[in-house]
Amino acid sequence: MKKEIDIFFTALMFFTRIPCPKWITHDPGYLQKSAKYFPLVGTIVGSIGALVFYGSSMIWSKEIALLLSMVATIYTTGAFHEDGFADVCDGFGGGWTKEKILVIMKDSRLGTYGVIGITMVLALKFLALCQISTPLVPFVLVAGHSASRFIATTLIFTHPYVREEDESKAKPAAQNLTVTLLLISCFFGCLPLLFFQTGWVFLLLIPMYLSKLYLGQKFGKWIGGQTGDCAGAVQQLSELVFYLSVIVLWKFI
Question: CA-CA distance, 96 to 45, in Å (whole number)?
Fold first, then answer.
């Protein structure tokens, strides 16, 4: 049990700014095993966003509450996945060889493709959430953050890690995901969907996974696999697809 707690807090420490207890044991091998808890970390991040939205909506308009909620989740993660999405936009937008794409994605500077890409994603997330009924928004936030992180783990499972340098901090978390870890990740990723009390909501995993297949095809074609930035891009896109799909689904049920 102590080991599993350490592994969970390893995931929480790696993907968020949430402080962890000092008694947690740090082991390089724990980061790879922590992939199963990525969606659970997403549930925590989404819950923070939901609480901020709920509290803010009692004082300000829905739009302001949504923006504050987005700021809260981005601050909690340190824009970890948003940065990955922007890097992918820059890399695949400006690079024409595997080597060039990887070099651009590793560059800490943000280019035109990255600025435009992340701006559009964040804007679409905001506009999509604005169209969802206010009582439903907190549940959508929690489920979206959790399920999208599960979708990101499927990329780690299906695509090999392609960076060769050992010093890459994301390498242990972005390679060699086992079937068992993937199934545990699926459990935690799908659990918040039970909030909606309708089985139809599980259909939303289909367009989310299709978005992963779309990006995965590009990753495989151009760089032969994935990096931590690629997983971040899948998380961001599938989260957006979830919000858009909720709007569509609720028009028919």
Answer: 35
> What kind and span of H or E run contains 39?
helix 38-57
In sequence order, the β-bridge partners of residue 220 are none
For 129-170, write each residue's pLDDT tens digit: 999 999 999 999 999 999 999 999 999 999 999 977 645 555
Angstrom distances, CA of residue 26 to CA of 34, 171, 198: 12, 16, 40
Q: Which residues touch 181 (CB under 8 Å, ≥6 apart)?
A: 33, 35, 36, 153
CA 89, CA 95: separation in Å to the nearest integer? Answer: 10
* Of residues 216, 186, 204, the one with CA closest to residue 241: 204
pTM of the model: 0.93
Tokens 């070099």 belong to 103
